Each structure stands twice: as C-alpha cells, then as structure tokens.
What we know:
Blueprint lengths: L17 H11 L8 E3 L7 E6 L3 E6 L2 H4 L1 H12 L10 E5 L9 E5 L4 E2 L8 H17 L23 H10 L6 H12 L8 E3 L8 E4 L2 E5 L6 E3 L7 H4 L3 H11 L3 H22 L4 H21 L1
Antiparallel strand pairs: 1-2, 2-3, 3-5, 4-5, 6-8, 7-10, 8-9
Amino acid sequence: MSGVPDLGPVPTRIPSDVGLVRRLVATQFPQWADLPIRRVANEGWDNRTFHLGSELSVRLPSASPYALAVDKEHRWLPLLAPQLPLPIPVPVAKGAPGEGYPHAWSVYRWLGGEPASRATIADLTAFGTALADFLAALQQVDPTDGPGPGLHNWYRGGTLETYDKEAQRALEALEGHVRTDLAAEIWQAALRESWDQRPVWFHGDVAQGNLLVKDGALVAVIDFGTCGVGDPACDLAIAWTLLSGPSRTVFRDRLSVDQATWARGRGWALWKTLAICAGALDDGGSELADAKYVLEQICTEYEESV
C-alpha cells in the first residue's frame, strides 16, 4: 500500500504528577499558584489531566507525538467553539516546557458532566439526535487552512488503510474467540470505500469518555486532540460503540450519511473494537466482554444491511 502512513510503535508515555503541575503553574502562571491541584480520575491516554481549582484544568501531553496537538488546539478551538451548539474546551493559557517537563501544555476551562454511558443517558435516541446535530454543525465550519490528517491526529480523517496492519494483527489474535471471518469481510468492505468529497471538520475521537452528560442529556464534547479536516467517517464509530436500534438510525439520518461513508464509519468502529478485544484477551473481565458486545453489534448491523 504505497503512500499509506506507518504509525510505528505506540509512544512511550512520560510520567507527571501533582508536584510537577504545581511547579509549572507556580513558575508560569503565579495567579493560579494557590489553587488546589488533583489528578482527574479518567484522564484518557494522550494527556495527563489535572483539576486546577474548581473551574480550570491542566493538560500535559503524555508523549512527543501527542504534544503536536497543543498548538492546533490553541489556534482552532476558540474559532470552532462559537459555531457549535454545545460547549467544547477552550484553552485559556499555554504553558511552556519547564521543571523537567519537555513539551508545551495547556490550561482549560473545566467543563462539568460525567462520561456518556447507557447508565448515564436518559434517552438514547435524544442523545443520538443531539450528537448528530453537533457533528453536523462541526462539519459546516469553514475548513479553509484546517489541519489535514497527520501525526498530530494519528491520521484521522485519512484512509482506513493506515490501520490495516493493526486490524490484521488483531484478527489473527482473535481467531477462535470471535467471528473473525465476518469481521474480516466487514473490514475489507470498509477499505473498498474511498473518500472523494470536500474535506470537512471532524472531532476524530467521538467516544464515550469525550461526551459529557448531565441530567441524562449530552451537555459538552471534549478532547479535540485528534480533530482536523478530511473524511468525517471516523466520527461515526459511536454509532456502534454506544448507539443501537432507533438511536443509531436517527443518528445516521440526521447526518445524512451515504452508504460509502457509513461503511467506512463501521470500519473505524471495527478497528477500534478489534484492537480492544485483542488487547484484553489475556486479562478478560469486563473490558473484553464489553468489546465483544460491541463487535457483535457491528456484525449484526452489517448482516442486516447486506
């Protein structure tokens, strides 16, 4: 596959702790030096995240490739925010390397809410509608000069072929554990569908942890580190990883997703789910069970569509 990016190994993450954040804030933003600092419980992978008082948060990229998103977020998020129907994080300050920490980092306004899940969402169809409306608005933002697929977002918005090696390794590892023949068929069907339309803005990681819920409703979308302009199919994976039945249907209809883009979105969901399944094989437990459930959702929806 000539021209397909090579993702390389997963970056080695560097440690950070409350003490480091306290020193960085004290030396670079002394106006906040007296605010309490504590680590966020579910901080994700690309950034180490800390509460700074009750209204702010500190995000420290956990490895060099993830630090590429800092300048992008500071340039684009203030421009995107006023054009979207739900709150998104907007940086209030950019920190510099220091105190032994090697990358630029950010201070954001804290957005309240809890991660989306079937337990926290009151009406899944209403949730799917609100999320589709948010993504539709994002896609309407002028993409001129926006960041295309690249290492800054792990080539989200580009071809699924970038993830083919990972998908194939996962399929080999999962042989005998899941319906790998059908999964391989779904993957190949997704790879056959290419993107040849005008690039649009996408979030890049529309996952449960990045969708905040309050009183059962979607109230904010966070973590735009993988955002960019290109093929928006990567934002459709949530249709299988969280939505189902009527909520999936309304989500697709509201976004007016064509068959080819839907197939690629299914491919993005499949790649992610296969990787989680393969990674959880040794430990088992709820993560494996949840990933197998999502994989079955993908397989069943595909079978019903052909």
